[in-house]
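Hi U.,

Before I forget, here's the chain from the pilot set. I'm dumping it here mostly so it's searchable later in email.
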Amino acid sequence: MKRRLISTIIFVLFLAIDTGANEYHVIPRPKQLVAKESVFQFSPKTVIYYSEGLERHAQMLSAYLRNAIGCQLALKEGKKLKSGSILLKYDPSLTCQEAYRLQVTKEGVEITAVDGKGIFYGIQTLRQLFPPEVFSTTRVWEREVWPVPCVEIYDEPQFAWRGMMLDVARYFLSLDYVKRYIDIMSTYKMNVLHFHLVDDSGWRLEIKKYPGEGEKKSGGFYTQEELRELVKYAAERNVTIVPEIEFPAHILSAVSAYPWLSCRGEQLSVPDQHYISKDLLCVGKDSAITFLKDVLTETFDIFPGKYLHIGGDEAVYTYWEQCKRCQEVMRREGLKKASELQAYLTNLVAGFAAKHGRKIVGWDEILQRGKIDCQVASMIWRNMKFAQEALDMGQEVVLAPADYAYLDFPETRFPSEIKAATWKDPISVQKCYHMDLSPYENNKLVLGAQGCLWTDQFIHGYLLQELPLLNENRSENYVNYMILPRMLALSEVVWCNSKDKNFEDFRSRLASHFERLDRAGYNFCIPYPTLKEQRTLADGRIAVKLETYVPHAQIHYTTDGSKPSYYSRLYQGEEIELVSLTDLRAVVTLSPQKMSVPLYIPENYSKYKQYGVFLKKVTAADVKKTSGKIVKIEATGKISGNGRFLLTFVPLTSQVNAKISGVEMLKRNEIIGHIDQERELTDGVVQVEFDVDSWQAGTPYFIQHKIETAASHQGNYAVFIKKVN
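Structure:
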């Protein structure tokens, strides 16, 4: 109790000393914030008053506070702020949808807006002005009052579409968890849940006309009643659900239940790992088109929002080219290429959707597969240049660039990082934050942007064992680890004007949100420690200092290259002396179970840059451990599209005495290139070339080779890869 009192005193003194925006820790950053002196004293006796029509919002605010304070606040209808109370009311002068004004004075709190959405967002900002304990799921009230800093805020969003995609097709997540996902989205003013319900690996929504074998074959689905419940739950939190029904590709889950949907009509099975099927919905079969319309009709009945996502990505047209029915459609419609059948299908579905008052969204491929005769929205994921091409066509755009917004990529390539997608570079919080939307801020055709969380990395739980927190919520903890805190960075990117963004300011505000997330029961990625200072000593050794911006955290470290833990040496601000930076490992810890991935400083291979991208250092110890003298190296992400790739083996020491042979390039477990020639690594650099002609995004690639070593082999060698054409 004494410690909490001291903390309160310090907090109030801090307010008196510094009234800058940074102390308010609000994410996303408000458009206008004027700090005031003093605080509002909140207590369980505080009454929430509300204007007519805002009772539900008052109930929600009370519910947010109830767990932490242990009681229900009094709710009363009223239009005027009374001393010691909170008032929610409409203000027609605030003409911008979702805008709000929040005023905190010593007398009370007033939230005004032109609509309920603005009121809701004002409530979210108010929650962030409270101490972090307010996010607790159990009673923590031990004070007479909670101080809320006085402030005047006006806020409105830059973009209307502030989304997060959740892939439940490849890995089924419970309805309760999806609600939790919506909760954390809405807390940070994200308002679109892009719900990826259909893919090769699973069909997750009940279609009454086509019951199939969904639960047996794909591991679970949501009933229509459950989805209507979810839609209502989301709407109460200002979140619109945009369902994604994938076609013409990524539909193997349907074809496995109804083989007649495809051109071949073969009985197939749902894959148990990441896989992109070549089987497409047959455009030439009336029965397949009827199936699609029936599915969409039931989908429209469940999801009342304006937009329907149709996928449209990564289609391979081999079977359309071989299908007599599809070829007949091409002749009838005057189409020259099989890929143009996709545009034909897109136009057909867009027209059908329009009759139901809906508009379709698709991945950026939908505008590149023939002429589109109607208004659609293009979701840009491959290259931002496609955004401008879509805008030049007069089409709406949602930005979801994989380089910045695909949260299934890890934050680092550190060896101890949780397993995640590797086909592109890692995406740090800082990189997320620097997604540049400034060229699109004044273009009304740009709806907004979103983050995406694909779950093919842990389909059917194969990778869940990699998560340190081994409990009944492993899959949920995995998802939370991947999205948090990067989603907070994205929320500021899509809410704020670019001129109001500042990463150092954001990171300072982010610091207090780790405790909020922890108290709310969300797993999250703890930022690893960073080098604060570095200098070279007279004897050639290196001295460093470490730091973390996570409050109440500790740093533990080792200097022998071993993995650190909560029980490793505690860092207390001293200089750490090292022979090499590569010997240092350090973690940020919140508890024995909650810690960051270890800081890892890799060796510098810049002098070998002529050989391309570094893949792996193979040590003499690695070779001894390798079963059958076969060394396998992951090259996912280093193989970037079709073309010729040069593979280079470089001796790092003079003690390398080995022969390399049987070099193979693998796509998943399929050998796509093989060179059997034996080469002496002892003699110097060894190079081989491979051709890749069937590249697929997200597909794992590997390089493996045989290694024969002499008794004198004690050295190390490195492997590099470079695209040469």
